[in-house]
Amino acid sequence: MSLFRQTRPVAAVPIRRPRVVVIGAGFGGLAATRALDGADVDITLVDRRNHHVFQPLLYQVATAALSPADIAGPVRAIVCRQRNVQVILDAVCGIDRTARVVKLESGRDLPYDWLVLATGARHSYFGRDDWAVHAPGIKSIEDATAVRRKILLALERAETETDKVRRSALLTFVVIGGGPTGVELAGAIAELAHRSVSRDFRSITPHCSRVVLVHRGKRLLEPFPEALSASALRDLTKLGVEVRLDTAVTGVGCDHVMLGDETIAAHTAVWAAGVMASPAAKWLGHESDRSGRVAVDENFHPSGDARIFVIGDTASCNGANGRPLPGIAPVAKQQGAHVARAILAAETGAPPPSFRYRHYGNLATIGRSHAVIDFGRWQVEGLAAWLIWSMIHVFFLVGFRNRFSVGWGLLWNYLTYARHARLITGEIEPVPVNAAEPVVPPPAQLVPA
Ligand SMILES: Cc1cc2nc3c(=O)[nH]c(=O)nc-3n(C[C@H](O)[C@H](O)[C@H](O)COP(=O)(O)OP(=O)(O)OC[C@H]3O[C@@H](n4cnc5c(N)ncnc54)[C@H](O)[C@@H]3O)c2cc1C
After folding, report:
1. Is the pLDDT of residue 402 over 90?
2. pLDDT per residue over 80-96, tens digit each?
3. Which residues line ligand 1 (CB under 6 A)?
4. Number of folded domains in the chain?
5. What's the per-residue H, E or C state across the chain?
6. 242 belongs to the catalytic site
7. Of ligand 1's atoms, which has the minimum distance to the CA of residue 393?
8. Which domain holds residue 40?
9. What is the pTM of this model?
């Protein structure tokens, strides 16, 4: 007989940790993920790209000042030390709120206890999507390198173009939209076209190129105080940018931009005029505003679902002043950190934390040594603003290597106007010498008469 009392074996019940699914490894999604470091949860971070992009510096890639790897880093490497995260390269295509499952394009279903949607925004052409092919925007590394290719190819072709009209169209660059991205792009293109390349090309002098910035509003940088808008206008004009305010674009083609009755012959147009949220509202079967954003409550839940959070550029919510929160990185990051706190509070039965957005300021740079900064109570412009802008942007970059290479790149660019990333990648089609004289003669001419 056993000395020990026999007990019925108890089936071991595996204790499952709460599953947090974060969609999007942009500013919002990464902030949420990082704020859950060490927490007793299992996080699955899904992104359709394998890298996080520091979007505020995309215009530097588009104008060949920085390389893509300077402003982007692999998501896996960013979270590699965080043991409770698994990264999945896949794209979301639907959400079953009843079953609490995220549908991925690979066909996989991802169950969640908590879902954070931070899938950002894309360009909006206000119903004229046919313009996208001629006037690309910059939202991703691919976009920025496509714009870089367009600008550099136009310069290469202009070097040998003998027809004056075609050459002038090749050397005309139109930026559409006078917000921070448009202002930054126009200033950087002007410096590239007027200064940086002139010593490497034989027929392109600083005065050959024309850069036009078209803006529908009455002043540039509308969220900034009027004095800073005026300062940006002055700085751009000094850089040789032609600023067209109160002007709407009415057509865009492969070699022109139309402004009402006026046609500007230009081979390069870049779009910086509007954004549309990712289709998160569609995945959720939820209403959206005119920009496609999901309306959320003060804890970033879409109506009727306390298990889901929508943050960043995909969400629409008001700040403490009753005005909508802007689509900028600090909003996405603060919301990301907040939802992590909210998830932990809910898991421990604590009351939900309250959110208050802290706005640190608006920044925009104009060329390689000027910027405008609105800190609310005080404003800075010129070189001092540019130095602050550079420090802030370098500091917030993800990863030491990027910080170092971007800091060095900005300094070198400041000292020399150099653009070290002037690479045209991909197949390059030969261009006919002029329209009437193709490079490859038609077959009839190949046969001797
Ligand atoms: C050119 C440019 C310049 C900017 N400059 C500034 C600036 O100077 N200062 C500032 O504060 N803000 C700036 N912004 C805005 C800022 O970058 C955004 O507000 C911020 O990135 C929003 O963060 P987010 O997390 O909502 O989205 P994002 O950072 O855009 O991240 C969204 C992520 O979701 C992923 N994703 C999208 N769809 C899917 C899907 N279906 N499945 C899986 N993954 C998906 C994307 O790949 C991406 O990684 C700029 C934006 C641009 C485009």
Report:
1. no
2. 999 999 999 999 999 99
3. 23-29, 46-49, 55-56, 58-59, 91-92, 118-120, 138-139, 180-181, 278, 312-314, 327-330, 332
4. 2
5. CCCCCCCCCCCCCCCCCCEEEEECCCHHHHHHHHHCCCCCCEEEEEECCCEEECHHHHHHHHCCCCCHHHHEEEHHHHCCCCCCEEEEECCEEEEECCCCEEEECCCCEEECCEEEECCCEEECCCCCHHHCCCCCECCCHHHHHHHHHHHHHHHHHHHHCCCHHHHHHHCEEEEECCCHHHHHHHHHHHHHHHHHCCCCCCCCCCCCCEEEEECCCCCCCCCCCHHHHHHHHHHHHHCCEEEECCCCCCEECCCEEEECCEEEECCEEEECCCEEECCHHHHHCCCECCCCCEEECCCCCECCCCCEEECHHHEECECCCCCECCCCHHHHHHHHHHHHHHHHHHHHCCCCCCCCCCCCCEEEEECCCEEEEECCCCEEEEHHHHHHHHHHHHHHCCCHHHHHHHHHHHHHHHHHCCCCCCCCCCCCCCCCCECCECCCCCHHHHCCC
6. no
7. 8
8. 19-48+90-123+275-348
9. 0.91
